[in-house]
Design brief:
single chain; alpha+beta; 4-stranded antiparallel beta sheet; 4 strands
C-alpha cells in the first residue's frame, strides 16, 4: 500500500547506502519519473530531461563522475535530471501547437481574448525573454525592464543567468515529485550535487547547452544508509506569517 503524501515526505531521507541484495523495479522507477514530469514548470516550457540509468557499465562511469560517493556507488539505478534552457524554442512551439489544436479550425477573427493572449505569449513574449546574444541582450532587457519598474510592477528576471535559474527551479520541482513518488512506494533516493558535470554530460552524450541539475541515487535503504537523525532549524525561524 502506498504512503500518503505526508507519510512519503516524512519517510524520504537522503539515503547514502543501499542494500546490495535488493534490486528495484525499473518500471516503477519509470512511473515515478512520469510523476516528475507533472510538476509545475515556468510557462509550461518543461525545460527538462530525465536520464534513467540502469546499465551497469554506465553506472560505474557515473559513480566515478560522482567522486565515488556511496550514494552513487551502492545505488541500483540513477536518475539524472537535466535542465534544457536551450530547448525553449522547441517547447514554446509545442505549447503553441497544443493551443491551436484546442482552438480548432475557427477563423482567427473569432479567437477569444484569452486565446489571442496565450498564442501571443508563446509567439512573442517568450522569445523576447529567451533570445540571447553573448549575454548582451539580457543585460539590455534588464536595464530597460528595470527602468520601467520604477513606475510599475514588472518582470525583472530577464538575463541569461536568470533564465538558467528558472530552468533549474522547474527541474528541482520535478526532482521533488520524483523523490516523493519513490518514497511513497518504499524506494529511497539521494539527490547529489557533488559531481563532475562535464564528465556526466560526456557520459550521457548531452549537448553543450544542457546543464545537470542533480544526480539522484535510487535503491532500498541499508540500515546504515541514513547517517543521522533529521535536523531542521526551528520552524518558527523559517515561517513568517504576514
Amino acid at each position: 500500500m502506498e504512503k500518503t503524501v505526508t507519510e512519503a515526505i516524512h519517510y524520504r531521507r537522503s539515503v547514502r547506502l543501499y542494500k546490495k541484495e535488493e534490486e528495484i523495479d525499473t518500471s516503477k522507477v519509470r512511473q515515478c519519473i512520469e510523476n516528475a514530469v507533472l510538476a509545475p514548470t515556468s510557462s509550461n516550457l518543461q525545460l527538462w530531461e530525465f536520464y534513467h540509468i540502469v546499465d551497469k557499465q554506465v553506472l560505474q562511469k557515473m559513480t566515478e563522475a560522482c567522486f565515488g560517493q556511496n550514494a552513487a556507488k551502492t545505488a541500483k539505478q540513477l536518475v539524472v535530471i537535466v535542465a534544457r534552457r536551450d530547448l525553449w524554442r522547441k517547447r514554446a512551439a509545442a505549447n503553441k501547437d497544443f493551443l491551436l489544436k484546442g482552438i480548432g479550425d475557427k477563423p482567427r477573427s473569432s479567437y477569444t481574448k484569452r486565446e489571442k493572449f496565450a498564442l501571443a505569449y508563446y509567439s512573442k513574449v517568450i522569445p523576447s525573454i529567451y533570445i540571447e546574444f553573448l549575454g548582451i541582450l539580457g543585460w539590455f532587457r534588464y536595464l530597460i525592464f528595470g527602468f520601467i519598474g520604477l513606475f510599475r510592477p514588472i518582470y525583472r528576471e530577464v538575463r541569461k543567468s536568470d533564465m538558467r535559474i528558472v530552468a533549474h527551479k522547474s527541474a528541482g520541482l520535478a526532482a521533488q515529485n520524483f523523490m516523493i513518488s519513490m518514497a511513497a512506494i518504499g524506494y529511497d533516493t539521494c539527490p547529489m550535487e557533488g559531481s563532475d558535470t562535464l564528465r556526466i554530460k560526456k557520459i550521457l552524450n548531452l549537448p553543450w547547452g544542457s546543464e545537470i541539475t542533480m544526480v539522484i541515487g535510487c535503491g532500498v535503504r541499508d540500515p546504515n544508509g541514513i547517517y543521522g537523525p533529521r535536523f531542521r532549524v526551528p520552524f518558527n525561524e523559517v515561517y513568517k506569517k504576514v
